[in-house]
Amino acid sequence: MVVCGDNALALRVTKELATVYRQHVTVVLPSLRGGSHGPQIAGLTERPGLSVETVEARVPDDDALIRAGIERASALALTSGDDQLNIYIALRARRINPRVRLVIRMFNRNLGQYLTDLLDRAARLSGNRRSGGGAAQGAPSDATTTVLSDSDTAAPSIVAAAVVGSDKVLYADGLLLRAKERTLRNVDRRNPLCTLALMPAPEDDENDEGSSDEDSSDDSVSEGADHAETSAANGEGAPSSSGDRPRRGPVLLPGEEDLRGLPPDREAVVLEAITRRASRPAAVRAPRLPRMLAFKELFSRRLRYSLLAMTVVVFILAAVNWGISRDSPLHAGYVTLLDLFAINEPKLHEPPGEQVLQLLAGLAGMMLLPLLLAVVLESYGSFRKAAALPTPPRGMSGHVVLVGLGKVGKHVLERLLELNIPVVCIEQNDEARGIALARRRRVPTLIADVTEDGVLEEAKIKRSRALLALTSSDGINLEASLNARQIKPQLRVVMRLFDDDFAATVYRTLRDTYPGAQTRSRSVSALAAPAFAGAMMGRQVLGAISVGRRVLVFAAVEARGNPLLQGRTVEQAFQPGAWRVVALDTASEDERQQDLSTVSSTGAGELEWRLHPGYVLKDGDRVVVGATRRGLSRLLAAGPTRERPRIPGTGEHHFPDPRTP
Fold first, then answer.
1. Which of 17, 42, 489, 554 keeps 20 to 30 A from 633, CA to CA?
2. Which keywords describe this protein according to UniProt (predicted)?
């Protein structure tokens, strides 16, 4: 495996591949002595039991990729935050090795889709040329390109931490799933899909989300602060006497014997289905009659009443003129309008009644001029207001205040809108990435500095349910969170902090200062790393749910050729503490969705979540498993492989040293 980058995501993906999947990893980075995480990555090369090498190159060009062994690599991960640099490296890597599996970090998802199609087409064409030229082996079918976004991957967990506190959410096949802590007495309250974890007894609960022994992050998310989460020594990285189960902390994927005889007040984490998202918006029927709502939005009530009164006056003048002149109603109305606009000849030789009527019409015309000017000004202001961002409406409550609409904030806003959760956004830069989304969806947004007095009050922070401080500045996030806590001490706050030590200190301080407020810690890179590592292993990871300092990964796995799945029933395929089958893909092999995180084109879900324990997994079945990271590694190692054979039971490859002839 080859990883390019020296950021927090590169560090965590390298550690994930080396410690969990037992892979040989080569990291290409600018410097081992400087940079963002160069020294930390260099420390992995010296850790016993890990097969990690490094290649220093200021720009990962062809020479650097060849020195990293790209010609023999199974997968390449590009973790830079620069989309253009990742595209540059991906194109070069595909040209050097058409069979390499690419996992690319990109923010622009549309560009990422185009790049995926381009690189996959290049791999197929290269394979056809090799086979046509008599080569023994073309590009394998799994030489795919996967484009992921770390912020998009972590957004559901950030939203869950803000909206429902300790709940974790997962999106799969258009279905919204959540992991909910319930007592064994109430575990069947919502007919859960399965039990994910058994929480430790209160007297044995020593899990502290605000601390970690090894991992560090330059971009963490927490309430009050966020510290790094899962580590090899505190999670699945270190072996224990009971397989994947730690001696302390939660018991992941417990079996029936683990749940038997426990007190009813013991807590467990269960997987529950919330709702299925609509795959496409319903067709909107055109109204039969024109609506007057636009007229009401353009003009104020006072102006509408004034226009109505002026219309009544004109009709009265026309009626009186008709009665005096004895002309036709149409001619009387025409003469009245001429008098109203002062373009008729003076009636010097007409009867006194018609002269008085002409003067009254002229007076009404003078009153009409400022009224028409008011119509023009109000319509202009209404059009400007319609093009601008709306402000928080009066009486708004139960909403989420989102500070920062940058890279992370934009994805979080998308998730909140998908869940139909009311949002009020605060952003200082009117050209931020999420402003266009907020304007398009008519989200109440304040273009202001959140640190100024009165901004949070204007966002109705007193009546909100949570605050998300997701700007790129630690100082702004901390100041906004402390100000919000002063206004509403019990407010749930999720804060983004880059400095890990600073994050841990702030986390503990806020937890001790506001014990009544919920305190949860989440890390963007920690939540995204399993998805990147799983994609490098050739499996789609639908999501990761953290339980304490451990992580459960949900991935799509083929049953074909895997003795741990094929030919076994769902009950027999369950390995307590390691993995369990949670869903079955019911679509045929030709019609399967490549990305199970989306809904099928027919609008119906293709995953069956309530499987009969006696169902036998057949050749060709694709299942979704919930597994620990080490359990998923063992499950994938037992399956067939198109590449060089792995060491049995570990999934590890032997690679020759590129420096030796």
1. 42
2. Membrane, Transmembrane, Transmembrane helix
